[in-house]
Amino acid sequence: MRAGRFRHFAAIDWSGAAGERHRGIALAIWDEGAAAPRLVRAGHRWSRTEVLHWLVEDLPADTLVGVDLGISLAFVDRGAFFPGWAESPADAKGLWALIDAICADEPHLAVGAFVDHPEASAYFRRHGGREGAAFGGGRGRLRVTELAQQAMGCSPYSNFNLVGAAQVGKSSLSGMRVLHRLEGGLPVWPIDPFPETGSVVCEIYTTIAAMAAGRSASRSKIRDGAELDEALARLGSGRAGLRGPVDDHTCDALITSAWLRKVAHDPALWAPAGLTDAIARTEGWTFGAT
Question: Do residue 176 and residue 192 come from a single domain?
Answer without folding.
Answer: no
